[in-house]
Structure formats: structure tokens, C-alpha cells
Design a protein that fits this description.
There is one protein chain. It contains four helices and four strands; from the N terminus they run E-H-E-H-E-H-E-H. By secondary structure, the chain is α/β, with parallel strands linked by helices. The protein has one domain: Lumazine/riboflavin synthase (Rossmann fold), CATH 3.40.50.960. Strands 2-1-3-4 form a four-stranded parallel beta sheet, sandwiched between helices.
Length: 144
């Protein structure tokens, strides 16, 4: 199963080695390739290119302040997903890594993000029913 990992050089942290380790531990036949582009604006074109030869494309980009370019990136990735019929995991999220001052903080964040997205990719591939909404009531409902 071919999986493409795609990120941009402005993201500021590379989780791909940890992510690959976690995915390879769960997916025996995985073939995982890493790809990088100069900026977030370059992600959609490369993602579209990667859909030709991969079952799933994981796009990872961190931003520090949400603006219209983040929304536009998400829209473009969804458009590519609809056009190609291939799943693009859109790991586009806000981050505070610019405030990190120690290698330990980066290591902890790298581990957290790798685990979070490995779990998500595994569920998408093998357990999509896990995304069903739950209807758990709060323990102390105040509306009753």
C-alpha cells in the first residue's frame, strides 16, 4: 500500500520519521515516501501529483495564525480530493512551536503529532466506522 507524506519547509518541525515508524509497525505492506515543497502554497499541486501513484496522501502543514491562505489551502485540497477520488489527509493545524525553546519540547511535540496522525491514518484505512459520532450524555447534565 503506497502512502505519500507531504509537507512544506515553513512548517518548522518534521514528524515524518516518527510517523513512518508508527505506520510501518501497523501496516505490513506499506510503502511510504516523503515529499517536501518550499511553501504551503505549493502543497496542492504536489498533492494532486501524488494522488496518481498513492492510495492516500498525507498533507502536513502548521500555521501560527489562521488567515485566508489556510482556508484556501484546505479548499484546494478538498477540491483535489473530489476531483481525483483519492483520500487526502489534511493535517493543517495551528501550532505554537515558534515558542518552543528546548529540544525536549520539539521532541514531545513531534511524538504527539506523529501518534495523533498515525492513529488517524490507520482509522481512515482500516476502521472508517470509528469516525461515527457518539451520543454520550454528560455525567451531570444540567438540562434535565
Amino acid at each position: 500500500m503506497k502512502i505519500a507524506l507531504l509537507s512544506d519547509s515553513k512548517t518548522g518541525i518534521n514528524i515524518f520519521q516518527k510517523l513512518k515508524e508508527k505506520l510501518l509497525a501497523k501496516i505490513a505492506d506499506a510503502e511510504i515516501e516523503e515529499h517536501f515543497v518550499p511553501s504551503p502554497e505549493d502543497l496542492p499541486l504536489k498533492a494532486k501529483e501524488l494522488t496518481d501513484s498513492n492510495k492516500i496522501v498525507f498533507v502536513f502543514s502548521l500555521y501560527f495564525e489562521k488567515d485566508s491562505s489556510v482556508e484556501m489551502l484546505m479548499e484546494k485540497l478538498v477540491d483535489i480530493e473530489l476531483e481525483t477520488g483519492k483520500k487526502i489527509v489534511k493535517a493543517i493545524e495551528e501550532s505554537e512551536i515558534e515558542d518552543f525553546s528546548t529540544e525536549n519540547q520539539f521532541d514531545e511535540e513531534r511524538e504527539r503529532l506523529a501518534q495523533k496522525w498515525a492513529d488517524t491514518i490507520i482509522k481512515i484505512l482500516f476502521s472508517p466506522k470509528d469516525f461515527a459520532p457518539t451520543e454520550d450524555l454528560p455525567e451531570n447534565p444540567s438540562i434535565f
